Structures are given as C-alpha cells and as structure tokens.
Automatic annotation (TrEMBL):
Listed GO CC annotations: membrane
BP GO terms, sorted: respiratory electron transport chain
Keyword 4Fe-4S: yes
All residue ranges annotated as the 4Fe-4S Mo/W bis-MGD-type domain in the record: 1-55
Keywords: 4Fe-4S, Iron, Iron-sulfur, Metal-binding
Gene3D superfamilies, sorted: 2.40.40.20, 3.40.50.740, ADC-like domains (2.20.25.90), Dimethylsulfoxide Reductase, domain 2 (3.40.228.10)
Name of the protein this chain belongs to: Molybdopterin oxidoreductase family protein
Transmembrane segments: none
GO molecular function: 4 iron, 4 sulfur cluster binding; metal ion binding; molybdopterin cofactor binding; NADH dehydrogenase activity
Domain of life: Bacteria
Length: 693
C-alpha cells in the first residue's frame, strides 16, 4: 500500500494505491489527509485507468525526414537525433532558436530541472509553460497586493469554519468537488454568468455578462464604502493606497454597475451585506475572474474589496485564489516561467541570478534574460526570428491554447518538434520525435497544492518497459548538448535537495523542507529545518514595510463585444468528468460515458432564435473560426451567452474560437469571452462516424 496524491487538480487529494497482481493499481481513499479526508471525485477514483490506456506510449518515435511517417526507435537513437538537431539549429540561428514549453502538472523536480535545462544546457530565454493560461493573472495581482503569491495563504481546512464565502469565477462543485465539504457550513455568494453546479448551492448568485466582472467588483467596493462597511482601523494599520483606489471605485455606483453587468442593485447590496456582516468570511477567485484581457485588474479589484473589509491576514477570514492544475502552485515557483528563477525569484534581479548561478555552477552572466510569455512564444514558432525547434513537457497546446488552429499551424512549421508524454495527445500527433515518459503512479517526487502544502508523490508500480522519467530524459539530452551528467541528476531526492538550495532566501523558500520527512507535509516558506507556515500574513504582509497594497483599477470592455454578425457572448470552462485538454481523461471509459463529446449550452429562446435544437449539432463561429458541438438547452443560462467546455479535440476544440488578446500585465489570454454566432448543422451519416469530438 502506497500513500500518494491524485494526479489531477490542485487539491492534490490524498489517496492510497494498492498494487494488483495484474500489474495495475486500485485507488483507496486516504482519510488522514485533511484536504479531502477520504473523499474523491470521479476523476480521482478512476485515475488508474490512464495507466493502462490502450494507446499508452511505450517506445520513442522518430520522423526520419519531413513528411515521413514516424518509426519506433531506440532511446539512444531518439536522443542522439534530438541532440544532433538541437546543436544544428543552435549553431545556425543561436540559442533562442530553440524553445521549451512546460506544464503545471509537472512535479517540482521536473519544473525546476526543465527551467535549468533551458537556461543552462540550451542557453535559451524561450521558456514558458501552460500555467500562463491558468494562474498568471492571480499571481500578478497577489504579488502586487501582498508581496508574495501563494494561492491560498491559509489551509483549506480553515474554510470549514466560514460563515460566508464569496466565490468569484469558480465552479468548485465540478472542478474540485472535495473542496465542497469545507464549504458546507457557509452561505455561498457565487459570481458566474452561468447557474453552475456551485451556483445552484449558493445563498446568492450574481450573474454578470461575460467580460464585466471588473465592473461588478468595483461596484461591490463602492457599496461596501457607501453602506458603511469599510474597516478603517485595518486600512490605517495594515494597508497603503486606499484613497486612490476609492477615487476609481467611486464612479461605479450600483445603478451604473447594473446597467453594465446586468446584476440587480439589490443583489449587489445583499452580497456586500452578507460578506460584511459575517465574523468569519473569505473571498476566493478562480479562472472566471482571471482569464480576461483585464484579468489582473479584475483579481486586484476583488483583493481591494477584501482589503477594504479587513479580510486578508486575519485569523478566520481571508482572500485566496483557487489554483487549478495539479502543481499549478509549485510549477510556477521554480523556474519554468519566462521571467522567473527557482524560489519565485525574478530573473532580472542580479542578486537572484548570482544566487541561482552559484547553485548551478555557472556564470551569472551566462544565464539568459526573460523571454516571451506562453502564447507569444507559441505564436512566434517558425516565424522569421522565432524559434525553429520546440520541446514540450506536460502540455497539449493544440487543444489548450487560444486561437488553437493558428498554434497548430505554428507547431507544424517547426524544423523540430519534440514532445515528452505518456499518451498520444493532439500535440504528440504533430511531433517529429515522441519520448514516452512515466505517469504519476510510476514516479517519485513532490507537488505543491493550492494552499502551499508540499507533498510527496510516491511510486506505486514500475513503468512499462521502454518508458523513462522526464528527469532522465533531460539529463540525457543535457549530456548530448555538452553538459556534465552530474549537473543534471535524475534522482528526485537529489534534485529536491538542489531545489532547496536554489530556493533558499526567495519568496517561495523550500530550504527547510526535508524530502524524506514529507509524511508530514510542510507549507512554504520553510527557512529552517522542520519549519512550516500554513498561515501567511497574520503579523505582516511580504512587502518591506509589512503592509498590503491597494491597486487602483477601473473597468474597460472586453477586447471583443457582440455585434450584428456575432451577437452572442461565448465563455469557456470545465466539467466534472474531464480535466484540462482531456488527453488523459478522454481515455477513461467511465469519464467519457459522462462527458464524451463537445457540447454547447444555449438558452432555449436563443436556440430557437438561431434555429438550433436541443440534442442537435451546431457550429459556434467567431472571427477566428468555428467549433462543432452538441446543443444542450439550459433554461437558467443568460440569453446573450453560450458556454463551451474546452476539454475536447479536433473540430470540437473550444479554443478554435477563443480570442488570444493578452492581459498587459500577466500575458493571460482572454479565454472567458469572445463574440460568436450559432449555425445549425446536419448530423453526419452514421457510416462516416462523426460527432463533434
């Protein structure tokens, strides 16, 4: 019996794996892990199904020449080929002609090594990861306000004592169901254009038009001040900058907010009254607040509201962001992000560069500077002056990136695309070289969940013959690029020990955490052996003066609004039975039975207006293209809005229509709102297969 954690969302629910005689594993709940206390969602219970997927990758594949079919190859041949091509491309066009794209599901050791590999073995600045599509806006807003970014600066279990919780853009009943056990005693205020499964359980549901979340947050702050709920003593003692912030929010009186968002004045006042009158209250944001061209400002506006009410840094109350991906927290702390070094250090900081270079045994001046953000990197591939080669670890951008068709074209234009994965994702299908790597139950390492709790991932069974770990792959490639093998160890304990040294003194300091002592998980920062910090900010915030910062913001429209040609808002999100791009969950029969094809939710009146029928097919068309989906009529949906989950491939990709315009601070794409129209489609003939996914 092995104690480990679910491979999916950032709750990282505790599980126990029991090996079976046939070579697989059975999942049992871990009642001792406090985050889930024995509860799992359907994805957690069925996670072993991916281990034995029929199309599991077990041998390297090489495309010997452009246009040729890929052929199985030995590991030596595959790695020699990649090393040879990387050296050729770098010699011809410089180190920035090679790029690296990582993922928020990689262990801390993999994320750390991937960033190190990019900057030391390749010498490239062209490295980023798919967390840019998930957490970057909240990270930017949280860092500006508090001086450090940790999704929840308090344990998840604290929420169980809450009287009121405001969830802005988070459908946790579907995306992380075990979290709901901690919210059962609270009155929920849910901000979501849809009446989601979470909104169904809410005491109050606010349904703003897509793209107007920022106006609503400003209006809630206006109401808090106008109705006498401002915590002036807290502001004077623990914050800076309220007066300038109020000058912006003063323009957003409730009636104006109602005109812009559609949220009634009475509901705005009721939300603030509920939140302000409770003794133990929390404000939590999710992707619905973040994935906008103004996502950083929107999260900042909610943080401003929380600060005005005196929530952050107070026992029994607080602000937090619900991290999405399994290692979305740790994945952004240790160097696979374009502008960061391990320990959440800034790559432009000379002292940070010197510290990390010392740990790595290289010259600080040899480290490249910051590179482009995730979407910008992907969109530059194969263009003049852009990278000619890309290595992908733990991501599927053909499905997950906005303007997905354009990104697929950019990937296809490369001289070399190398993908390390364990199933043939849509990105794998484009690769010139495929490297089969281990899955969660086949490897050791650490993960950091949404509350900053560092956890052990434990190996429960051997990988299939021919499969190697990502750390081994990176070491072998580094050696072929001229690095000494000892600079890139492939043992997770050894890598974690180095990560501890590299992170020491940084905002995300792991230096006091012992890999072998993680039977008792530790919250970072941990600067001394055995130290754990489950609750941040109780005495001071992480700015030099110990005070939190208000950040003045004001509303602006989404980059694209409905018009005569595209008269509806489209918004995207997740569903219970699938995860991320679906590359894993779409291979589990129990999950595809519940959500096996792309669909679009439409109000019945809107469906009638566009001539589409419940259960029929429709094409959802934006200025960037169209996606095909099965129509589901939903009477609670706004009549001006359609909703699509983004887990499905091929013609059912929701990201064929999404807008790649970026937040100017976080560089987050605007996934949550674009203008579309609906067109009815005939059902394909049965003999041709068909269906939207």
């Amino acid at each position: 019996m092995v104690r480990t954690h679910c491979p999916y969302c950032a709750l990282q629910c505790g599980t126990r794996l029991e090996a079976s005689p046939s070579g697989g594993v059975t999942v049992l709940p871990d009642e001792e892990f406090p985050v889930n206390a024995g509860r799992l969602c359907v994805k957690g219970w069925t996670a072993p199904g991916v281990l034995t997927a029929a199309d599991r990758l077990t041998a390297p594949l090489i495309r010997p020449r452009p246009g040729a079919a890929r052929q199985p190859a030995s590991w030596a041949a595959a790695l020699d080929h990649v090393g040879r091509e990387l050296r050729r491309i770098t010699a011809a066009s410089g180190p920035d002609a090679v790029a690296v794209f990582g993922g928020g599901g990689l262990t801390n050791e993999k994320a750390y090594t991937l960033g190190k590999f990019a900057r030391v073995a390749l010498g490239t600045s062209q490295v980023d990861y798919n967390g840019r599509f998930c957490m970057s806006s909240a990270a930017a807003a949280g860092s500006a306000a508090f001086g450090v970014d940790r999704g929840l600066p308090f344990p998840v279990t604290d929420l169980a004592q809450a009287e009121v919780v405001l969830l802005a853009g988070a459908n946790v009943a579907e995306t992380m169901p075990p979290l709901m056990r901690h919210l059962e005693g609270a009155d929920l205020i849910v901000v979501d254009p849809r009446r989601s499964a979470t909104a169904e359980r809410a005491a109050l549901h606010l349904s703003p038009a897509p793209g107007t979340d920022l106006a609503l947050a400003l209006g809630l702050l206006h109401t808090a001040v106008a109705d006498g709920h401002l915590d002036r003593e807290y502001l004077d003692r623990r914050t800076h900058g309220f007066d300038e912030t109020w000058r912006h929010a003063a323009e957003w009186w409730p009636e104006r907010v109602e005109r812009v968002t559609g949220v009634p004045v009475a509901d705005q006042r009721a939300a603030v009254r509920l939140l302000a009158s409770a003794r133990r209250r929390y404000l939590l944001t999710g992707r619905g607040a973040e994935q906008h061209s103004k996502g950083t400002d929107t999260v900042s506006a909610y943080i401003n509201l929380a600060l005005a009410l005196g929530l952050p840094g107070r026992a029994g109350s607080g602000y937090g962001c619900l991290t999405g991906q399994g290692n979305g927290q740790g994945g952004r702390e240790h160097g696979q992000k374009a502008d960061q070094l391990p320990g959440y250090r800034k790559i432009t900081d000379p002292a940070a560069r010197a510290h990390v270079a010392r740990v790595w045994g290289v010259d600080p001046d040899a480290l490249p500077g910051p590179g482009p953000s995730g979407y910008e990197l992907l969109d530059s591939l194969g263009r003049p002056g852009g990278p000619r080669a890309l290595l992908v670890f733990g991501s599927n951008p053909v499905v997950s990136a906005p303007a997905a068709r354009r990104i697929a074209d950019r990937l296809a234009s490369l001289d070399l695309l190398v993908v390390a994965d364990f199933v043939p994702s849509e990105t794998v299908e484009l690769a010139d070289v495929v490297l089969p790597v281990t899955q969660w139950a086949e490897e050791d390492g650490t993960m950091t969940n949404l509350e900053g709790r560092v956890l052990r991932r434990r190996r429960a069974l051997d990988p299939p013959p021919g499969v190697r770990s990502d750390l081994w792959v990176l070491r072998e490639l580094a050696v072929r690029l001229g690095q000494p093998p000892e600079r890139f160890p492939d043992d997770p304990r050894t890598v974690f020990a180095e990560l501890r040294r590299a992170s020491a003194g940084g905002p995300a300091d792991y230096s006091g955490i012992d890999f072998d002592a993680l039977d008792t998980p530790a919250h970072w920062p941990s600067r001394a052996e055995g130290e754990s910090t489950p609750r941040l900010f109780l005495d001071r915030f992480a700015h030099d003066d110990g005070r939190a910062r208000f950040r003045p913001v004001t509303h602006r429209d989404a980059a694209e609004l409905p018009d005569a040609d595209y008269p509806l808002y489209a918004t995207t999100g997740r569903v219970l039975a699938q995860y991320q791009s679906g590359a894993q969950t779409r291979r589990v029969p129990e999950l595809t039975a519940g959500a096996g094809e792309a669909f679009v939710e439409v109000h019945p009146d809107t469906a009638g207006r566009f001539g589409v029928a419940d259960g029929g097919l429709a094409r959802v068309v934006s200025r960037r293209g169209g996606t095909v989906a099965r129509v589901r009529t939903v009477a609670s949906l706004r009549t001006d809005t359609v909703f699509l989950p983004f887990h499905f491939p091929d013609a059912g990709r929701a990201n064929l229509i999404t807008n790649p315009v970026l937040d100017p601070v976080s560089r987050m794409p605007e996934f949550k709102v674009c203008a579309v129209r609906l067109e009815p489609l005939e059902e394909p003939p049965a003999e041709t297969g068909g269906g939207p996914s």
